[in-house]
Amino acid sequence: MKNSILIFLFVVLVACDNSGTKATNERSAQSTPADERDDTTPPANNATVTVISGCYLQILKRDTIVLKLEQAGDEITGKLTIDNYEKDGSSGTVWGREEDGLIKLVYSFTSEGMKSVMDVYFKMESNGLIRGIGEVQTKGEKAWFANPEEVQYPVSGRFEKIACDQVPAKYR
Questions:
Q1: What is the C-alpha to C-alpha distance for residues 85 and 3, in angstroms, rounded to an integer?
Q2: What is the rounded CA–CA span in Å between residue 35 and residue 25?
Q3: Which end of the chain is more exposed for a tag (fewer CB within 10 A), N or C?
């Protein structure tokens, strides 16, 4: 009986050690910064690499929102322009990073002659992004998500990825 228990524990320990090594190797391969990867080699274990850089467009009735992102390693920068039909719009820069399929950005913009800063989150999809909405707290000219883990990503917030040369000139 003791031998059976010892053999069982040995098998469990070996199995755990092998799966831990595999998981560690997978994490190491996936967390290598883009500037250190050999992009000619496909990702390990058929993992997909999402290319975030590019232009994204959302048109809701007569409102147009254009997002242009550039990714360098794990840093993301860009420009966001919101053109509302019968209200003041805004335009400014964004910066942040991708975390677990979410792009978490800070948007520094000017609207109605005032400078403001706010969080904007996007969930990555196969051919676009979905803008997150949630409870917001403000202090002065700054706004941030009160509960980032509760941000929702409704389909109505979808941005289509488009070729940057298709972005209308007034939004470039």
A1: 77
A2: 19
A3: N
Which residues, at least 6 apart from 33, have a Cβ–Cβ distance to it below 8 Å?
A: 73, 74
Please give the angle made by the CA atoms of 110, 117 and 169, to the nearest 5 degrees: 40
pLDDT band at 51 (very low <50, low <70, confident <90, very high): confident
What is the C-alpha to C-alpha distance for residues 124 and 83, in angstroms, rounded to an integer? 23
Joined tokens for residue 65: 């929102």
pLDDT at position 92 is 96
Closest CA to 107 of 127, 124, 89: 89
Would you say 34 and 49 are in contact if contact means Cβ atoms under 8 Å apart?
no
Rounded to an integer, what distance in angstroms lies between the CA atom of residue 82 and that of residue 60?
11
Tens of pLDDT, residue by residue over 26-37, are 333 333 333 333
